[in-house]
Every structure is written in structure tokens, then in C-alpha cells.
Amino acid sequence: MKGFRFGSTQGAFYILPGQDGWAATYGNETLGEFPSPQQACDDLARGLSCEHLSELDTSTLEIPEKLADWEIVHV
Fold first, then answer.
1. End-to-end alpha-carbon separation of the chain, Å?
2. Which of 16, 41, 57, 71 could make an S-S bridge to 5, C-beta 3.0–4.6 Å?
């Protein structure tokens, strides 16, 4: 199975297969479940609001909106 990784200046974000679709993670925290990896990517790039990221605005981290710009990881 494959997933996606983006290394930001604040740490790595992952989009991985989850229980109900795709899970976006940062550190040891799951940021949410998404119907597709592209939806997770879009939300992270545009500024995901999540209680685990209360002090971090993902829209300021230059997260790419295209999955092709993320690193592919095998899980």
C-alpha cells in the first residue's frame, strides 16, 4: 500500500490509508479522515483547522496542493 509524505519546516505530514478512507497525520496525531488523498492534500494546503493544530496554521507551510509534489511512501 502507498501513502504520501510532505516534510514541512515544522515536521512531516502524512496522508495514509485509514479505516474509512484516508487519514491525514502530523506527528502522532490524526488530523482527520478524508474520502480521498487529494481531499486531504487540499485541506492541508489551504489550512486545516483541527484541535491538534491549534498553534499551527497549515496554510503557512507551503504544503503543495498536488499529490504529485508529495513523496510516495510505502506502508
1. 6
2. 71
